[in-house]
């Protein structure tokens, strides 16, 4: 990160003016260095410009800051929140959630973002393990939390009550440095991992600048953050657009019909999504998406068939963002790069060191497959993703390290087979998993979702696959399903697919 990069970033944010620099220094002096600092400066720069719209109302930048500041004083004086406390959030996307995040950050509390769709057992486990000082939650989760009978959490606050929070207009808070923002990750099985981030201006300048530059976000006006704010991708896009003074639209849930209506009504020009959302919106009402000039897709693999579909129907507006909860944004592929290098995760962002390593931790040459690792303060950190880099500097993903299947002594990456299946004109979605097998160790099973009103047979599909795959990559079984299971983040839920088979590899009840 050099001085010129910093200058360019501040200029795009309209902060590199005498007024902007004065406001930044004044905000640091008053607030300290925390997420509220960003909103403080944005409120002074953008004032009555629309800032945030949810399912119920729209507030401008001045109102958003005032509500967040009032709530921070309310949290401190009424609920006795203080620096270093653990504040959990169990909320959908809405205005009260956003103001509560800013307010708790201002106090210097550690913010824990929980997945509302994690399931009863997982939520109970997280509550017991983390022993939050305060949990801010939506009304819909009250019965569930009451059923837990958890004494570890000291206070429960319903998010609906925060809209009417009051505080002394002259009340002040001491300056504070930001606490941690903790994302609880780990998929659908096993104990969640903690992806810990401590907001830092210098640490996030380079990723932010690359995001703005490649997606040309400084030229956009209104963004629809369709991804959940409890995920790093969602909260990162929200804060980026606020820093630029843009209007941000959020919604408590994602339904394709509702999303298309929002995009048309709000004249959205940039939307942050996962690939499944893109697919559903194209199938719903593609004519309502004509205002879009940028679709930022992340959180899951973007297959070449979907890239081509977006290009055919909406033009060259699809970007592929790759990152991890722990490492943040790592690479970006532009529409032009996706057209030239189908399936690529793009080039790494400025200031990031990303490479493929073997099992011994040794860096691999271009073209060699290994686990992607990112350089951190403590050395090379494993991402858990398998991939490789080509000679031109573009990265490609092969799946997760725990997805790799060893069948008859051969290493098989399911994503390679899934990518081929995605090109079949009669297939809407496909997933490949490994099933326990006494002879081969594991055998390949492909789950296939045919396109509507089309019928496929196993033999027809295998005949189509044989010329395109190595013999050891051919699925031993093909299971046709009506729909594929997905997690709350829109990722394919292979753990759910594995339930189709018993521990011995025998088929169970069919999926619907």
TrEMBL record:
Residues 417-491 form the AMP-binding enzyme C-terminal domain. Residues 42-377 form the AMP-dependent synthetase/ligase domain. GO terms for molecular function: medium-chain fatty acid-CoA ligase activity. The keyword Lyase does not apply. Belongs to the ATP-dependent AMP-binding enzyme family. This is Acyl-CoA synthetase (AMP-forming)/AMP-acid ligase II. InterPro entries: AMP-bd_C (IPR025110), AMP-bd_C_sf (IPR045851), AMP-binding_CS (IPR020845), AMP-dep_synth/lig_dom (IPR000873), ANL_N_sf (IPR042099). The keyword Amino-acid biosynthesis does not apply. Keywords: Ligase. One of its GO terms (biological process) is fatty acid metabolic process. PROSITE patterns: AMP_BINDING.
């Amino acid at each position: 990160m050099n001085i010129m990069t910093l200058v360019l970033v501040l200029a795009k944010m309209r902060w590199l003016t005498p007024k902007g620099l004065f406001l930044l220094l004044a905000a640091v002096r008053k607030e300290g260095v925390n997420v509220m600092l960003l909103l403080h400066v944005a409120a002074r720069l953008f004032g009555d410009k629309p800032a945030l719209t949810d399912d119920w109302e729209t507030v401008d930048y001045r109102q958003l800051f005032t509500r967040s500041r009032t709530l921070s004083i309310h949290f401190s004086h009424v609920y006795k929140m203080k620096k270093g406390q653990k504040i959990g959030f169990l909320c959908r996307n809405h205005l009260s959630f956003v103001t509560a995040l800013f307010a708790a950050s201002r106090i210097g509390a550690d913010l824990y973002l929980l997945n509302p769709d994690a399931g009863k057992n997982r939520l109970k486990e997280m509550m017991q393990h983390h022993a939050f000082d305060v949990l801010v939650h939506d009304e819909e989760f009250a019965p569930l939390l009451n059923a837990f009978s958890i004494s570890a959490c000291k206070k429960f606050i319903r998010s609906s009550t925060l809209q009417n929070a009051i505080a002394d207009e002259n009340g002040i808070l001491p300056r504070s440095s930001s606490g941690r923002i903790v994302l609880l990750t780990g998929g659908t099985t096993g104990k969640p991992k903690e992806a810990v981030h401590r907001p830092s201006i210098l640490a996030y300048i380079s990723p932010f600048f690359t995001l703005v530059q490649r997606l040309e976000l400084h030229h956009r006006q209104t963004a629809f953050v369709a991804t959940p704010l409890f995920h790093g991708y969602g909260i990162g896009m929200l804060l980026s657009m606020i820093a630029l003074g843009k209007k941000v639209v959020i919604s408590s849930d994602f339904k394709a019909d509702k999303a298309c209506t929002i995009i048309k009504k709000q004249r959205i020009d940039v939307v942050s999504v996962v690939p499944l959302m893109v697919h559903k919106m194209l199938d719903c009402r593609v004519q309502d998406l004509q205002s879009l000039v940028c679709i930022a897709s992340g959180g899951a693999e973007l297959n070449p068939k979907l890239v081509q579909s977006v290009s055919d129907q909406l033009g060259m507006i699809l970007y592929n963002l790759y990152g991890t909860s722990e490492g943040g944004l790592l690479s970006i592929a532009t529409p032009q790069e996706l057209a030239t290098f189908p399936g690529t995760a793009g080039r790494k962002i400025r200031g990031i060191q990303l490479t493929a390593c073997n099992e011994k931790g040794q860096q691999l040459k271009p073209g060699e497959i290994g686990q992607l690792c990112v350089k951190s303060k403590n050395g090379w950190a494993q991402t858990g993703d398998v991939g490789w880099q080509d000679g031109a500097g573009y990265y490609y993903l092969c799946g997760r390290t725990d997805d790799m299947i060893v069948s008859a002594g051969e290493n098989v990456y399911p994503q390679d087979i899934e990518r081929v299946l995605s090109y079949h004109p009669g297939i809407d979605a496909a997933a490949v998993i490994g099933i326990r097998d006494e002879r081969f160790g594991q055998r390949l099973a492909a789950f296939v979702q045919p396109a509507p009103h089309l019928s496929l047979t196993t033999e027809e599909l295998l005949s189509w696959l044989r010329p395109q795959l190595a013999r050891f990559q051919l699925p031993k079984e093909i299971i046709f399903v009506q729909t594929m299971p997905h997690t709350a983040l829109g990722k394919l839920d292979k753990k759910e697919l594995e339930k189709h088979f018993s521990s011995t590899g025998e088929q169970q009840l069919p999926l619907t």
